[in-house]
Amino acid sequence: MIRTQRLAATTVERVVSGASLTTVLQETWRSHSGLSDQQRGAIQDLSYGVLRFYGQLDILLGLLLNKPLKDQSLRYLLLVGLYQLQYSKTAPHVVVDSAVSASCSPSIDGRNSRNMLDPRHAKSIGGLVNAILRNFLRKRPALLEKTAATEVGRYSHPQWWIDKLRAQYPSRYQAVLETANIRPPMALRVNQRRTNVEAYQKLLHNAGLNARRPENEWTEEALELFHPVPVEKLPGFGQGLVSVQDVAAQMAAPLLCPQSGMRVLDACAAPGGKSAHLLELTDLELTAVDNDGERLERLKQNFTRLGLKPYRIIHGDATHPGEWWDGRPFDRILADAPCSASGVVRRHPDIKWLRRESDLAQFAEIQRKTLDALWQTLVKGGKLLYVTCSIFAEENGLQVESFLNHHPDARLLPFSVPEIVEGQLLPDLHHDGFFYALLEKL
């Protein structure tokens, strides 16, 4: 456990300093190729957990310290220990003993460890770690109560995020914040070109996996696993029978209402989940565009696995269609625009701490440019589906309102899905948060 604690602490430290959690973990696996699957799983679980509850843990640590720590690596090791004591099933004495040993052991990330240069210093550091973690165990109820008296400590989100949600969703913001701190469900999209939901559900059952149909009628291809598993344990995954995709994200393709033979554009397509769903529904002349070359490679791999063949795959910028558009208008456009990703933070808890309130204006500007540019490529009578995985009005309802004010040839079409309120679908136990707006060109 010593190694996993220290690597998790290093991961969290790098993320809080500005790096993406996904990127840091990938680099960790490359740098420490000898890690077992169990160790990787533990490091990932600890890293996600600490970031999920970082607001609470940071305040708890502040209450336990007499003065700020100079050694930041030690600070993040203590945060990992506090997370384990509060949220894991590991015996407390094992957590504490391992954290003490980790604080006194040589660095495993290649950096010099001053603890090993001076045994007396190592002993004092180990004593400090032991005292802080055991003090938490002794005073846990009072410390948790004091931490929960602050909104950041209670909800484990930045204060600006809490304030914005309260202003925009006064009756629901607490549920949204609490939902963001639970583990996300694992939803599947069955590839109807190769099987059907009933047949695949039987395959899951035979493999010892249980799944249920979602309690809605958004999509006919969705299943939700009772317990998440690695994709390699999904029967037929490598043969393209199924994909992993959130239920709310599976709404995009049906809402766009594609018809056989239509020219369809997915303008921000990678890694290809929504594009693939469109092609699974019907035969289309689909063009997939994205400005990220690496993510486009993942899109191509997904299409190959699923046995799908799009019309064109283009490495290009959606805000500059003149660089890649052939001039033939599209019947349908899916504009899954870059956004704050505030609706998927339980899958990516680092987003809460990496985003700044000022980022919203920057995303809104990119979204505006994307909509304006793509509207030129849509045929009259065609439809454009604007999508974000955000829950902030600046990127969603306000963005669409501004677009309609500047485009008299655009009309907002209604949805028949009762859960979507003015385009917004807020996250709950079974799906992420998404925004949808279906625009028709008059």
From TrEMBL:
Q: Which GO terms describe its biological process?
A: regulation of DNA-templated transcription
InterPro entries from the UniProt entry: MeTrfase_RsmB-F_NOP2_cat (IPR049560), MeTrfase_RsmB-F_NOP2_dom (IPR001678), NusB-like_sf (IPR035926), NusB_RsmB_TIM44 (IPR006027), RCMT (IPR023267), rRNA_ssu_MeTfrase_B (IPR004573), RsmB-like_ferredoxin (IPR054728), RsmB/NOL1/NOP2-like_CS (IPR018314)
Which leading EC class covers this enzyme? Answer: transferase
| PROSITE patterns, alphabetized | NOL1_NOP2_SUN, SAM_MT_RSMB_NOP
- GO CC annotations? cytoplasm
Q: Which reaction does it catalyse?
A: cytidine(967) in 16S rRNA + S-adenosyl-L-methionine = 5-methylcytidine(967) in 16S rRNA + S-adenosyl-L-homocysteine + H(+)
* Domain (SAM-dependent MTase RsmB/NOP-type): residue spans on this chain: 176-442
Keywords of the record, alphabetical order, are: Cytoplasm, Methyltransferase, RNA-binding, rRNA processing, S-adenosyl-L-methionine, Transferase
Family stated for the protein in its record: Belongs to the class I-like SAM-binding methyltransferase superfamily. RsmB/NOP family.
Instruction: Indicate what this protein is called per its UniProt record.
Output: 16S rRNA (cytosine(967)-C(5))-methyltransferase
- From which source organism is this entry? Nitrosospira multiformis (strain ATCC 25196 / NCIMB 11849 / C 71)
